[in-house]
Amino acid sequence: MSALAVEDLHVWFDLPGGRELHAVQGIDLALEPGERLGLVGESGCGKTTAILAMMGLLPPSASVAGRVLLGGEDILAGGDRTMRPHRWTDIAMVFQGAMNAFDPVKTVGSQITEPLERAGIASGRAARARTAELLELVGISGERQDRYPHEFSGGMRQRAAIAMALACEPKVLLADEPTTALDVMVQAQILELLVRLTDELGLAMILVTHDLPLVSQACTRAAVMYAGRIAETGTTRELHHAPLHPYTRMLFQATPDLRGTGAVSSIPGAPPRLDEPTVGCPFSPRCDRAFAPCAATRPPLRTAGTGHLAHCHLEGGA
Amino acid sequence: MSPQELAEAIVPATADTRRRIPLWGFLKGHPQAAIGAAILVVFALVAILGPWIAPYGPREQVGPIFGTPSNPHPLGLDDAGIDILSLLIYGARITLIVGFAGALVAVVVGGLIGIVSGYFGGRIDNLLMRITDYFLVLPDLVLLIVVASIWGRSLRNIIIIIGLVYWTFMARLIRSQVKVVRERAYVKRAQALGASHLRIITRHVLPQVLPLILAQTVLMVALAIFLETAISFLGLGDPNAPSWGRMIENAFDRSAISYGAWWAIVPPGLAVAVVIMAFNMLGTAAEDALNPRLRVSHLLRRHFRMRPLPDKDDAR
Fold it and tell me: Is residue B54's pLDDT more than 80?
């Protein structure tokens, strides 16, 4: 059974004047235990909103539809009420900019201990020992738990945030841009750490990023999001070498290649507005292979081998 | 892509949605502000149209002493047989004028000192803040009693006293905000370009603190009206200006309570309470709209909603 399965997830935000923004427009994802899935796409395509919905952490202005299955149980069905018992104990998150997410006036250790005590896993001396263990796990000396966040470097804080996410031994870890704003050395360390932890703990992880090489490096599979929908899902190898959706291909073309074959090209235009209904394929105005049906009808789901899916009118690859 | 196109791609044509707070939208989004504003408009109209809508003059004896509320005098008569409703209408003028003028004095003096102190910092800041501290530690009530008895009882003096009591609060607030703005990169940039202090203050600092000043001014008016009422009740108000505070003082002084003449005290008391409440409602809503950091909605225990899945053909 999948560790985490998302079925037809929608998220809307209320806008002033009674209007709505359809931020996530029905996405499907499945994640096996120990699997690392990359969720990529440009800014504002709904990546963060989608995983916040999986954690049940959206603001009151949001409304949600769809199913989030954790080990077969729909934890989204009852909103916050059914989400709460699983949050952090079964599904945890490393927030975007997590290194700035610590409370500056509490020690790092006390902030890692908090979820342990809340979930009733450990308290007092045992919680301290567990916190030290967690910090060791991410490569920070356990004695440092009595330090304050400002006494940590950026990379250390990021690792401490990962330790905090792992505190209650979740089955699923959602990592939202865990390496953004870190220098490449620290970035590599964090990535290595996440890979090692998922391997060792059998943790399933969704890695949200807009850094394609990072995904290729750390994940076996990836989902490419565009305008609140998933354009293409497949193994990172398939996405790179045999993309079905032109957006995937153009994303890779926009990424510098170390071996330098072919020029880096940008994708012209901007993503569509999500506060108006989209007709046809949302990518069609920017697509270099758009043809008549693209602007008119919603692209069908196309398959090329198991688990390689794309929403595109094109037949036979992009 | 040309720089022009790039700029348009990054900043879509949204010149008409520049950050400003349309009054109508603000009132619509903040029901409490709308209620407050509506109350204030009514009181302001009453104050402006006072002489035309008041049934009798403010010094005109039209019936018996402490005459009970009746048809020609819906709110009864006071100790000199003057119509309470007319007094209330004339009193609205005095009270609102004193409230606005007192707040204005406090805001202008406090704002000026706050900006100078926060912007220049160093010794000037130190000196001005120590003066502010001095005024802050003086007990308000004692200060105003002493000043009122030395300067004499007049409307102008009351306005000055209100300014004297409240400017410190304003100065502190503006100073801290100016200190924040002063450290912004664009202020440094303006300095590097050789802009004068006056230009930086008026063009870069003032626009940033103005919303704060506006919201605080509204709240300050409420405080000023409250203080005016207190001063008048203590018998230090202008004897020739029938403010609401003076009406209460007068009724109290002439033992309206032992006559059972509640109508001499309740209407002005209620009027003061309602106007202060209205200013507060408007002021706190404005503060909330202009300073989103004060918002605490994220601390409320409210959550996202679930809704049924949309129709496939409809949503896609």
Answer: no
Measured between its terminal Cα atoms, the distance across chain A in Å is 32
ipTM summary value: 0.76
Angle between helix A124-137 and A154-166 (nearest 10): 120
**Which DSSP category does B308 fall into?**
P
A102-157 pLDDT, tens digit per residue, is: 888 999 999 999 999 988 888 889 999 999 999 998 889 999 999 999 999 888 89
Give yes or no for A66 touching B (CB within 8 A). Answer: yes
Torsion angle of C-alpha atoms B45, B51, B52, B57, degrees rounded to 10: 130
List the single residue in A8, A79, A298 with the smallest CB-CB distance to B304.
Answer: A79
Q: Which of B9, B297, B303 sits opposite A270 (nearest CB)?
A: B9
Which chain B residue has the Cα nearest residue A269?
B9
Strands A20-31 and A4-14 come out as: antiparallel
Give B197-244 pLDDT, tens digit per residue.
888 888 888 888 888 888 888 888 888 888 888 888 888 877 777 888
- Is residue A210 within 8 Å of A267, Cβ to Cβ? no
- CB within 8 Å: A10 and B308: no
pLDDT at B6: 47
User: Which residues partner with A204 through β-bridges?
Assistant: A172
Q: Is the pLDDT of residue B16 over 80?
A: no
**How close A118 comes to chain B (CA, Å)?**
18
List of domains in chain B = 3-315 (1.10.3720.10)
A24: nearest CA partner in chain B: B315
CA distance A311 to A241: 18
Q: What distance in Å separates residue B300's CA from the closest CA in chain A? A: 9
Interchain CB distance below 8 Å, B9 and A76: no
> Do the Cβ atoms of A298 and B306 come within 8 Å?
no
Q: Cβ contact (<8 Å) for B9 and A269?
A: yes
